[in-house]
Amino acid sequence: MAQFFIVLSAEKTRPCNSNGICSLNEGQDRLTLSCLMTMGPRGKLKDVQISESVIRVNRRMTYKDVARILSGDAGLREEYADLVPMFELMSKLSRYLRARRTKRGAVDFDFPETKILVDENGKTLRIEKEERNTASLIIEDFMLAANEAVAEYFCKRKIPFLYRDHAAPSEESIKSLKEFAGAMGFSLNTEKGKVKPADIQKLLNDCAGTVTEAPIHYLTLRSMQQAYYSSDCIGHFGLAAPYYCHFTSPIRRYPDTQIHRIIKDYLHGRTGKKVIAHYEKLLPGVALSCSAHERRADETERMADKLKEAEFMQDHIDEEFDGRISGITSWGIYVELENTVEGMIHVSNMFDDHYVYREKTYDMIGEHRGRVYTLGQQVRIRVIDADKEKRQIDFVFA
């Protein structure tokens, strides 16, 4: 059996320089709250311990360097020779954990994130995809494992807690997805209007590599409900996890800080009737507030990204790019470029015909020439406008 000490949070969470007390700097002691998981063969969880601890980082690494080490970079493998066996064991365990999630039916969309690079004055220099590499997958897999383990630990002990829940899709959205998948030649298994995560993932696997992969992924994502915080543990549909919480990022997320307080009360024996009653009264309101603030923060981040994308595209007016159709509405077609920048072709700028949006098939058809535009279709566009104030980018077909 292999034991991994996954230390995922700094003790000090008051406002401060993130490179100071909150950062795991090389060679310095740090107070932490740790989830220690003992894993058996093929990543099966054997034991969980949660404790306050002190750690010292031996070497501070980057995702890129660890990924290069695992891909066989001779120079880096020699430089970090004492750590290579550990990285390889971590990678092996990561694959086991991912395989176990896949087997139970977790849904994996694997959409790339947007990376926006700016100069010292904040001007956008470059926008690119930020793909997950082997090292980032290791951390992601370990964090998911810790979040599940902590949630299960406290749920089974009936301690009031703050969970990260994700409900199953509504019957209406599943019906729409099933009809669309059927029209594309694929089936979605349902039972009495309900669906299991494994059924969703099977559909995604079945359509992988086909021309309908993008539209089915898009509609599947649209069918999903939004995850939220709750004092009730209903599980996480997308991860196919009966227990889930956010434990690993107390410096970035308040919900993590809240459950750290609960964990410390438990570790120090402060879970009498009075404390339990306090948390039972407090947590429902905390959950609602955290969910609302998360949605506001997500929207703020989205709007900030749109502003920087529009700023970047102002320097590319009249240039042509390849992209794919990422959304279709009655007022126009959204196109995502290779660097993840998204703009819209308004129906008023589709000059070759009068186009009509067909809601059931999520496509747009020209009334006279019969040309059809579908989700995921590769297209060539030209940039005609980019407005920072409106956070809007306008394309036309090239």
Spans of 5+ residues with little confidence (pLDDT < 50)?
A: 1-16
Shape: globular
Which range best describes the helical content: under 10%, 10-25%, 25-40%, 40-55%, 55-70% or over 70%? Answer: 25-40%
Distance between the termini: 59 Å
Mean of pLDDT: 91
* Proportion in β-strands: 15-25%
Strand order of the largest sheet: 10-9-8-14-15
Number of strands: 15
Largest sheet: 5 strands, antiparallel
The tally of structural domains comes to 3
Number of helices: 9
SSE topology sketch:
Elements (H helix, E strand, L loop, with lengths): L1 E9 L18 E11 L5 E12 L6 H8 L3 H6 L4 H21 L8 E6 L5 E7 L3 H23 L6 E3 L5 H13 L13 H11 L5 H11 L4 E3 L23 H14 L5 H41 L6 E10 L2 E6 L4 E5 L8 E4 L4 E4 L5 E3 L3 E10 L4 E6 L1
Antiparallel strand pairs: 1-2, 2-3, 4-5, 6-7, 8-9, 8-14, 9-10, 11-12, 12-13, 14-15
Helix pairs in contact: 3-4, 5-7, 6-7
Note down, in words, how this protein is organized.
Helix 3 crosses helix 4 (about 135-155), helix 5 (about 170-185) runs antiparallel to helix 7 and helix 6 runs antiparallel to helix 7. Mean pLDDT is about 90; it is low at about 1-15. About 25% of the residues are buried. The protein has about 400 residues and is α+β, with helices and mostly antiparallel strands. The protein has nine helices and 15 strands. The protein is globular. It has helices spanning about 65-70, 75-80, 85-105, 135-155, 170-185, 195-205, 215-225, 255-265, 275-315, and strands at about 1-10, 30-40, 45-55, 115-120, 125-130, 165, 230, 320-330, 330-335, 340-345, 355-360, 365, 370-375, 380-385, 390-395. Helices cover about 35% and strands about 25% of the residues. The chain folds into three domains: about 1-105 and about 110-165 and about 230-305, no CATH class; about 170-225, no CATH class; about 315-395, Nucleic acid-binding proteins (OB fold (Dihydrolipoamide Acetyltransferase, E2P)), CATH 2.40.50.140. It has a five-stranded antiparallel beta sheet with strand order 10-9-8-14-15.
